[in-house]
């Protein structure tokens, strides 16, 4: 039941390698002008985190996530930005 606006729908691909799930997220063009104001744009981070909805252990196909529980990280610690300007 979560709805995301178009600026937060940047996850373009997701794929599995063994038990790991990877994703490719892009920042919406409309947010490009504000991207330099952030080390990592919040909308891009949010889009990248959508890959958490794909449970690598359950064994379901990546397209079968409608009934999967939604994981929402709410606390971060020991996080650092390794590079900027990507």
Indicate the structural class.
mainly beta
Oligomer: single chain
Radius of gyration: 14 Å
Sequence of strands across the biggest β-sheet? 1-2
List the helices and strands and how they pair.
Layout: E1 11-17, E2 20-25, H1 42-49
Antiparallel strand pairs: 1-2
Structure in words:
- The chain has 86 residues and is mainly beta.
- It has a domain at 6-53.
- It is 9% helix and 15% strand.
- The chain has one helix and two strands; from the N terminus they run ββα.
- The protein has one helix spanning 42-49; strands at 11-17, 20-25.
- A two-stranded antiparallel sheet has the order 1-2.
- β1 (11-17) and β2 (20-25) form a beta hairpin.
- The model has no long low-confidence stretch (mean pLDDT 81).
How would you briefly describe this protein structure?
By secondary structure, the protein is mainly β.
Features:
single chain; about 90 residues; mainly beta; two-stranded antiparallel sheet; 1 helix; globular
């Amino acid at each position: 039941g979560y709805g995301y606006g178009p600026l937060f729908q940047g996850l373009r691909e997701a794929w599995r390698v063994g038990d790991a799930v990877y994703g490719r997220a892009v920042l919406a063009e409309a947010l490009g002008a504000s991207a330099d104001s952030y080390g990592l744009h919040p909308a891009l981070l949010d889009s990248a985190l959508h890959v958490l909805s794909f449970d690598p252990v359950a064994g379901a196909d990546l397209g079968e996530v409608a009934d999967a529980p939604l994981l929402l990280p709410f606390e971060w610690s020991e996080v650092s930005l390794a590079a900027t300007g990507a």
